[in-house]
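Thread: quick sanity check before group meeting

JM: Hey all, I'm pulling together slides for Thursday and realized we never actually wrote out the predicted structure for the chain we discussed last week. Dropping the sequence here so it's in one place. If anyone has concerns about the input, flag it before I start.
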Amino acid sequence: MADPIKHALTRRRFQRGRFVEEEPDETLVYLVKFGIAMTACLSALEIANMAFLHGWNSEVFSAITGLTGIVVGVFVGRKT
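JM (edit): ok, ran it. Output follows.
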């Protein structure tokens, strides 16, 4: 698989003496990619805020924390 996100979200089950791979829905893959991209953008925004304004923005950090929790929750929920 060329897509690491799709590979990470693929379920592997043991069924009838062999492993069966169940690929995720494309919408889920796109949403996880969007969440990861937005986390990276918000992290860059927080770093720029600290570098140029010498301050901490609580709202941006809350958004980063929320998105990270959602992405990790999707990965953990999909694997079980």
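AS: nice. The beta strands are 11-15, 18-22. The CA atoms of residues 23 and 30 lie 13 Å apart.
JM: adding both to the slides.
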